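$ run holo --ligand "beta-L-arabinofuranose" --emit tokens
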Amino acid sequence: MLNKTLVTVTASAALLGAAPVTPNGQHYLAQPLVTSIFTADPSAHVFNGKIYVYPSHDVPTDIPDDDLGSEYAMHDYRVLSMDRIGGKVTISPPVLDVKQVPWASKQMWAPDAAYRNGTYYLYFPARDHQGIFRIGVATSKSPTGPFKAEPQPIKGAYSIDPAVFADKDGKSYLIFGGIWGGQLQRWTSGHFDPRGSDTDLKQDTKPALSAKIARLGPDMKQLAEAPRDLVLLDEHGKPLLGGDHDRRFFEGGWMFRRNGTYYFTYSTGDTHFLAYATATNPYGPFHYRGHFLEPVQGWTTHHSIVEFQGKWWLFYHDTQLSNKNHLRNVKVTELHFNPDGSIRSIDPFTR
Ligand code: FUB
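-- output --
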């Protein structure tokens, strides 16, 4: 049974082109934040008391879907901003285009942003001119850009899905990585290795590949140390295995701290869950705790978590506006914690 609020929101979204129910007849838990452009991979931050969301800007393409995500052909970024959850959402003009990034050729995928000492930093992955995913940084004096890219990608960073975690002690960390199309499997030797399969990683009985973390230097533009593995441990204290597709890291890492506990949250990719693990410090090891978002409509699932005005919010995406994997729309819903710090699982559909 739908409550009245949901009916009202669903009706207004329908006017703007959002399907009121899924192709299977289910009702969506939340509605798209914006409907005039396609947005995905939302990285939300609170700067100066406002919410800024740094999403991917999805675009139509004729490139067919494949296991490497070639159909995700994005070329620029926009910023969404709002004074409050549920309030008016402002869409910025383009803040950075691939043409303005000397080292990049295509596929401007999931970005993140950070602030330090009067400067805003936009971190973004893109393929270089050899087709290798690297991570770049661009700066602005405004949270809504425009951003100016550094001429070279960040040395020592690679793969996709950068996320910056700013700890309370002033240290900031760059988290990155994604397997399959994100190419993390090609860096196990420390250098890019073009050989081998991108989807059969031949590691079902071996520890799964880990997301990476490295402290950022004071200028926020370079790594202050070599990247380390964000190891995920199972209930027996053993690393999750590569064959454990329901629990192992795939892409879309995020980190936050709550009540002294560090949470590492991520997508399980081909099993379409958002999962989390906790630790006592940002390097881990992290203990796997469970799923907190069931599969959404669409292949990818990607998120961020932010505290705003005393509540915790999950920004995520699905494909309500298009029902196409590569044309997504960002959403937000409240996230709840249990007294023991575990996260209450969310069903993206109401019953
Ligand atoms: O948006 C392109 C890619 O899809 C992202 O980098 C992944 O996290 C997945 O959402």
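-- notes --
The CA atoms of residues 175 and 197 lie 24 Å apart.
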